[in-house]
């Protein structure tokens, strides 16, 4: 286990022309170009009457598989998803973006959504992928919210996770959701990141409120301006938590890092605007299977590189390098 990359790894350093976590996060999301990727859509019908959609990049039979769990309001079209899946195609591996419920372009059917601790759906997705590629190595990567959910599943499963995945990685995961929630609900973060997320989150919640009028309070949802309000009114209500604080405390993956048995890379930039550096785990808080990488720069799911106007690519290269270690 290490807190910095070993000499053979790819250490991250932000370009000098793009300083600070906010600039790295916003610029990478809005202005760095990532080519489109053509996917094959698969729908999995679930026993509870709902469905999950998978967007695949297919490789040859027997090739390794990388499963990507996207972030809050993400999808296969997110810049980091297209970047990673393009690398899968170029490498000749299978890649798949597993959409959480309601994130594939179509609302899910049930009076529930997705959330940062939905480890049951993580397990369901990985079982499905492994059933289709029983003889191939399967690697799992989670970004932001998807990273937290994946780490939670890995910690809950312990040694049993080896049956489905050989290695895993989490990028910019909000490991301490209480710290992340309060950070996002203040100042610049609240006006920029939280406000942007709430546009689509509230729209989806209001659709659910119209379909299930006795479950959610449309007027209160429409007036919400913080994650604490939204998670109390919607996430907690739909998924059995008392309020936002109860939800954040119970689904944070940080306490479960000590129980992870599958080799797992956890990458968090120390200038990530979504999670303060003081909330990041130290080596004594994780199991020997966990490798912590906490570069000083990188922002939130950003890690841009190169001269202006910049390019993506460091993140998928680092993930592929980590997954490849097992195959050498």
Question: How would you characterize this protein structure?
Answer:
This protein has 328 residues and is an alpha/beta fold. It folds into two domains: 21-174 and 252-327, Rossmann fold (3-Layer(aba) Sandwich), CATH 3.40.50; 177-251, no CATH class. 37% of the residues lie in helices and 13% in strands. It has helices spanning 21-30, 79-91, 119-132, 145-157, 177-184, 187-211, 218-223, 227-239, 244-251, 314-324; strands spanning 40-45, 51-57, 65-69, 94-98, 138-143, 167-171, 264-267, 290-293. An eight-stranded mixed beta sheet has the order 1-2-4-3-5-6-7-8, with helices on both faces.
The succession of helices and strands, N to C, reads HEEEHEHEHEHHHHHEEH
Structural class: alpha/beta
Tally of distinct domains: 2
Widest β-sheet, arrangement of strands? 1-2-4-3-5-6-7-8
Let me know the largest β-sheet: 8 strands, mixed
The best one-word shape is globular
Strand segment tally: 8
Tally of helical segments:
10
* The CATH H-level homologous superfamily of the largest domain: Alpha/Beta hydrolase fold, catalytic domain
Query: Any idea of the CATH topology of the largest domain?
Result: Rossmann fold
Q: What would you say the CATH architecture of the largest domain is?
A: 3-Layer(aba) Sandwich
Computed Rg: 19 Å
Helix-strand layout with pairing:
Blueprint: H1 21-30, E1 40-45, E2 51-57, E3 65-69, H2 79-91, E4 94-98, H3 119-132, E5 138-143, H4 145-157, E6 167-171, H5 177-184, H6 187-211, H7 218-223, H8 227-239, H9 244-251, E7 264-267, E8 290-293, H10 314-324
Parallel strand pairs: 3-4, 3-5, 5-6, 6-7, 7-8
Antiparallel strand pairs: 1-2, 2-4
